[in-house]
Amino acid sequence: MTEDSFAEMDFSGALQRLGELDPIEAVAKAKEQLETLDNVTVNIAVTGETGAGKSAFVNAFRGLNDDDEKSAPTGITETTMAVTMYTHPTKSNVRLWDLPGIGMPNLNANKYLKDVKFETYDLFIIISSVRFKENDVLLAKEIKKKQKHFYFVRTKIDNDIHSSAKNRNFNEQQVLCAIREDCQRNLKDVGNPKVFLISSYDLGMYDFQNLVDTLELDLSEHKRFALVQSLPVCSLAMLEKKKESMEKFIWLAALASGVATYIPVPFVSVAIDKAVLVAFLISCHYTLGLSENSLIKLSERVNKPVSQLKSAIKSPFALAVASKLSVPSCTSKAKPLKSLDELLDSKRLVEGLHGAAVGFTSAYKALSGGLNEMIDDMKEVLHVAGLD
Ligand SMILES: Nc1nc2c(ncn2[C@@H]2O[C@H](COP(=O)(O)OP(=O)(O)OP(=O)(O)O)[C@@H](O)[C@H]2O)c(=O)[nH]1
Ligand SMILES: [Mg+2]
Fold first, then answer.
1. Given this model, what pLDDT does residue 2 score?
2. CA-to-CA distance for 83 and 339, rounded, in angstroms?
3. Which candidate in 46, 116, 211, 365 could, as Cys together with 196 as Cys, close a disulfide (CB 3.0–4.6 Å)?
């Protein structure tokens, strides 16, 4: 796909974008593209010294807390001894690979990369919790030789800020600047790369968003979409990023909802299949962090009762999707007035190009309206969580 977006397009614009004038062919192409989007895989390798915080980063990236059942084990003693793959809880095509620590002196970077099967990964994240050392530099150089991308992440920044805050002249920006400069000094042999400062226990702070923006630049559009879909909603900026990413594909989902029933050339006869629209909205619901599990994780992270977060969810679409997924509501007021099927009352046969335009446009509007309602609800959830 080209970089221009489906968002803001009308029916004929969407058809043209797909290189079709025939809605039936466009439906087939849209279905194919949605399938490709679902099947694309993103493989992210996380490496660095023993104890640097690799496993905690893997968990945070997957929106999990360290003590979740499906989390990578973390701890103060050496924990990760073998390459382990962790899939995203709801998007299994996004995989985080927790690599063993590069603790030993004089790392043979070439051998390490061969041992961990470097060709598997789209990109490498090299993590340090203090300063980057010779091994990190050796590894980055070898990754570069193998024509893969790497990114330096300095983690546990919350610890640094916490201990510096005791100083009388504490200034957070100065502390961050000093850490960044110190890291960059040790990495000058790799050509002054950017260093992203993060805390795995608070992705909404520091440079996590910047890291995501940078990772995206080196990924294809499909991989970028999968990555952004999978990230936990830790801030308004992340929610905005997800919104932009999903808006690009509303036309694709609207067109893919068409079912060719009868094609008496030159007429066009299609029906709108509600199941495709429902699937798109359910996937938005998960991506936006409105699912039961995501809300529970968020409530644990911000230490607020999940019922308080749920009380911010009021829109007809969000409540209807939750009800479809059988998520219990917390307040009697939060019962959906209409079911998702009723909200998507668009299963109709549309005939002729004009009819198709009306049918697909109404499917587009229903999806767009549903997405916007859920985004507004998630904004409220972030507000209640104190993350706006
Ligand atoms: N405060 C704080 N602690 C962190 C952070 N990331 C990791 N830790 C802690 O640092 C310790 C080591 O983290 P792990 O994620 O297990 O480190 P690792 O790199 O996977 O370690 P090995 O598997 O042994 O190589 C754990 O006690 C974590 O709780 C962070 O961002 N902030
Ligand atoms: Mg580990």
1. 47
2. 45
3. 211
Encode pLDDT of 267-292 as tens digits: 555 677 888 889 999 999 999 999 99
Site to substitute for ligand 1 among 81, 130, 156, most atoms within 8 A of C-beta: 156
Ligand 2 mean position, distance from CA 195 (Å) = 21
Conformation bin of residue 263: beta by default, left when phi > 0, alpha when psi is -120 to 50 = beta
Of all residues in the chain, the percent with pLDDT exceeding 70 is 87
Superfamily of domain 41-219: P-loop containing nucleotide triphosphate hydrolases (3.40.50.300)
- Ligand with smallest separation from the Cα of 78: 1
**Residue range(s) of every CATH 3.40.50.300 domain in the chain:** 41-219
With beta carbons less than 8 A apart as the criterion, state whether 302 and 386 touch: yes
For ligand 1, atom 9, name the residue with the nearest CA. 53
Phi, psi of 92 (to 5 degrees): -70, -10
Give me ligand 2 centre to Cα 301, in Å: 21
Question: Which of 258, 222, 216, 252 lies closest to 7 in space, CA to CA?
Answer: 252
Give residue 51 CA to ligand 1 midpoint distance, Å.
6
Q: Which residues surround ligand 2, an ion (CB under 5 A)?
A: 54-55, 79-80
**Can you read off the two tokens belonging to residue 356?**
């198709």
Residue with tokens 């923006």: 213
